[in-house]
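User: My advisor, Dr. K., asked me to get a structural model of this assembly before our group meeting. I'm new to this, so sorry if the format is off. These are the inputs:
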Amino acid sequence: MPKPRLAVVGVGLIGIRHAELIAASPDAELAAVADPSPIGPREAGRLGTRHYADYNDMLDRERPDGVYVAAPNQLHLAAGLACIARGIPAVIEKPLCDTLEAGAELVRASEAAGVPLLVGHHRRYNPRVEATREILARGELGRIVAVNALWAVRKPDDYFDATWRRTAGGGPILINMIHDVDCLRHFCGEIAEVQAYGSSAARGFEVEDTAVVAVRFASGALASIALTDAAPSPWGWEAGSGDNPNIAASFENCYRFLGTAAALDFPNLTVWKGATAEPASWADAIHPETRAWAGHEALPRQLEHFLDVIAGTATPRIDGRDGLATLAATLAITDAIATGRAAAPAPPPA
Ligand SMILES: NC(=O)c1ccc[n+]([C@@H]2O[C@H](COP(=O)([O-])OP(=O)(O)OC[C@H]3O[C@@H](n4cnc5c(N)ncnc54)[C@H](O)[C@@H]3O)[C@@H](O)[C@H]2O)c1
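Assistant: The format is fine. Below is the predicted structure of the whole assembly, which you can bring to the meeting.
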């Protein structure tokens, strides 16, 4: 059986990681990459694949079996529609799109054509995320009452040379916090409402550099999320999990789950609880127990899953509708910041 031929649209920071993974995979072939910048031909040459400046040309000439769309957020709709029009399943990097209208259009097109989309919320493939879901499903923590989440890094100044990252449709809420929003939905269920503050005082861009969000879940649980891309820290998913070679690992925790029976530090998977079956009261000592987890990094597992979706042996773990729900919750945060009022995620499209 010939290996599935995959192509990548946009080989910048994340697209090149997808292209390298495909090129190294025994189960897939890197058919081509499309990127109009000088990075395109350079990286295609390094990986021994063909380069196109225009992704439409690439799709027509190569007819790949699957495509990763890793271009700027503002281009996800057009590139996604181009794949769907040709019947090619696609992984769309997160956010699904830069606006809800664009996201809904992409979901409708995918559903009408029966062409699967997989949204790149890759953290869900991480074994520690899966182990946490099991801890929560077993009820080890009791009922979740609150979660505290933190994501703080100092991005290098040249990261912002790319205009799209500092203008509407970019910004760390849509680029980074959306991952935490997706994780929190995955762990705690749907988000009913958010309140938020944003600030651009550190970098002075059109988009925020810092935000603090209060979240109310439909379950009644609450969460707080603090984010900044202007302050060095050891706290954040990538630093805590060691899941991204571009961000130095600290293996410090970034989420704290508070349940009626026990607490959980994440991603170290340390459960804190009392010595008896009864939930510890404030005078009782509580003890740490670290839970085991095993498995590989998220991106290779996302690729394996995408190959199954292409083969028709799996349906997307994170389909367009799921990615749109995470986008709606994330854009509720930007609405709350803009209006100064609590905001609810927009309902899913018909
Ligand atoms: N899953 C993750 O952890 C993760 C991490 C980083 C970025 N992302 C997402 O991936 C996307 C890309 O982010 P990035 O940080 O790699 O951006 P980037 O700016 O580093 O790379 C984007 C690339 O797309 C290229 N491009 C621009 N217009 C194009 C076009 N018309 N056709 C093809 N390529 C085009 C650019 O030349 C650039 O090389 C964004 O949507 C971002 O939110 C996801």
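One thing worth pointing out at the meeting: The chain has a mean pLDDT of 96.

User: Perfect, thanks a lot.
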